């Protein structure tokens, strides 16, 4: 699938027509050459003030494509897309870089959100590094009609008005349909007299308990109770990706490989809140403090319990994170400031008050509490949980948690309530807004995403 047009990605449209801006990008690229100065810059700097033109235009031959690709590979995604808009030869280098999967520069996470002041197909990407937002035009169905239930490796996991799920890359506009919701263990289709799907039957059974009677939901209502959180993990055994879904009843697990025609249920455990994938194992943590590993590589899924910790707070969420130094972190998100049964006229609200961080000891049976992340930061929410080094990402604040709202209540009747999001300083638990709340709409809830230009190769999936 083709990349989004420059005009679609940026109001990257507005940037594409600003010659001075493009020449500025060109100059930064050329400085990386340590001496190269392509004469082709004259082609697109005609309208720039003469001194600027003379400063960046030389008489050397046009740069070879492999050299341009090497330079572009060192730029963050907004800059590499701008550079690709400079002229045909630069665009060709940009296209080759992305289509060959050679663009792998680690990106600073961005906040993806929608706005009530924009059209339904538009989303915005807020860059922490540049402190500015970029407008994106995404493929149908319109993004504001969808739920955002996950973000991993540059991919959003969305749920549309028929409660069906798609992967969407907001940078490339690539979109992939996931297996039908009717292939989930607890869901059955209901057809009308003409054979048209018009409702779903949902069973509340789990691997640990039965169900009295199923519930019936309209096509657009099932997503209010079924979907909670989803993850996209690279599957090194096939070269494709695995999608893991936490869903009701009781926050169970199901998974599918991209290209599969059905979801595979992972009973019997429940109450899961976060997952990660490492060395062929799925790690899943529950709100009850249990950490399980599941081996998905064989014909039969093998589950083991690594650790079990009693729950300490009434209102908390748990996360599992791969630390840059190789360890595993378990994180408790605690909300002691909340009101779920407000007086008439008041609103439901919940506010994060602190995070408790523990490292899993090497033996895997004990936890060590960590009071300070020093030069590291956390990104938590509906995204794949991340721990990054502040030295590698200088625009981030060390020893801070960047969090968005992943409370399950926001899809169950609280779509327009406030969103619990911001940054929290682990030194003193003080919080700040990262983006003014008037910029984003509450539904779909904003989510962290790490931009990625790589595509999913459907031809490489397992059989």
From TrEMBL:
Origin: domain of life: Eukaryota
Annotated Pfam families: Beta-prop_KIB1-4 (PF03478), F-box-like (PF12937)
Domain KIB1-4 beta-propeller, chain residue ranges per copy: 125-422
InterPro entries linked: F-box-like_dom_sf (IPR036047), F-box_dom (IPR001810), KIB1-4_b-propeller (IPR005174)
Residues in F-box domain copies: 62-94
PANTHER family: F-BOX DOMAIN CONTAINING PROTEIN, EXPRESSED, OS03G0802100 PROTEIN
Name of this protein: F-box domain-containing protein
Source organism (scientific name): Brachypodium distachyon (Purple false brome)
Name of the gene this protein is made from: LOC100846301
């Amino acid at each position: 699938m083709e990349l989004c047009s420059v005009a679609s990605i940026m109001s990257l449209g507005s940037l594409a027509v600003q010659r001075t801006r493009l020449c500025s990008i060109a100059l930064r690229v050329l400085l990386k050459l340590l001496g190269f100065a392509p004469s082709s810059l004259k082609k697109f700097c005609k309208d720039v003030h003469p001194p600027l033109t003379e400063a960046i235009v030389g008489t050397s031959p046009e740069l070879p494509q492999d050299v341009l690709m090497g330079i572009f590979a060192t730029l963050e995604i907004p800059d590499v897309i701008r550079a690709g808009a400079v002229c045909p030869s630069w665009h060709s280098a940009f296209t080759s870089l992305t289509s060959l999967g050679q663009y792998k520069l680690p990106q600073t996470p961005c906040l993806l959100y929608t706005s009530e002041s924009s059209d339904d197909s538009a989303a915005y990407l807020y860059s922490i590094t540049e402190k500015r937002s970029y407008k994106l035009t995404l493929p149908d169905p319109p993004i504001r009609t969808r739920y955002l239930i996950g973000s991993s490796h540059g991919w959003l996991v969305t749920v549309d008005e028929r409660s069906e799920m798609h992967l969407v890359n907001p940078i490339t506009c690539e979109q992939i349909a996931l297996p039908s919701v009717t292939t989930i263990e607890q869901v059955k289709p209901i057809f009308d007299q003409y054979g048209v799907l018009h409702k779903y039957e949902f069973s509340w059974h789990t691997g640990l308990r039965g169900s009295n009677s199923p519930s019936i939901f309209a096509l657009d209502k099932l997503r209010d109770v079924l979907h909670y959180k989803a993850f996209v993990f690279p599957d090194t055994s096939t070269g494709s990706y695995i999608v893991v879904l936490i869903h009701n009843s009781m926050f169970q697990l199901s998974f599918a490989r991209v290209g599969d025609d059905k979801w595979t249920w992972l009973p019997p455990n429940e109450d899961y809140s976060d997952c990660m994938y490492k060395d062929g194992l799925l790690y899943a943590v529950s709100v009850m403090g249990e950490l399980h590993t599941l081996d998905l590589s064989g014909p039969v899924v093998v589950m083991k319990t690594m650790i079990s910790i009693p729950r300490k707070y009434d209102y908390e969420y748990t996360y599992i994170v791969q630390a840059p130094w190789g360890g595993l972190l378990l994180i408790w998100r605690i909300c002691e400031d909340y009101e779920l049964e407000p007086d008439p006229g008041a609103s439901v609200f919940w506010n994060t008050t602190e995070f408790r961080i523990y490292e899993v000891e090497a033996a895997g049976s004990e936890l060590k509490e960590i009071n300070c992340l020093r030069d590291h930061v956390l990104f938590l929410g509906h995204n794949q949980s991340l721990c990054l080094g502040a030295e590698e990402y200088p625009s981030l604040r060390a020893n801070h948690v960047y969090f968005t709202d992943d409370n399950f209540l926001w899809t169950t009747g609280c779509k327009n309530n406030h969103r619990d999001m911001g940054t929290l300083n682990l030194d003193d638990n003080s919080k700040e807004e990262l983006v003014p709340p008037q910029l984003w709409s509450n539904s779909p809830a904003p989510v962290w995403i790490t931009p990625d230009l790589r595509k999913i190769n459907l031809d490489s999936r397992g059989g």
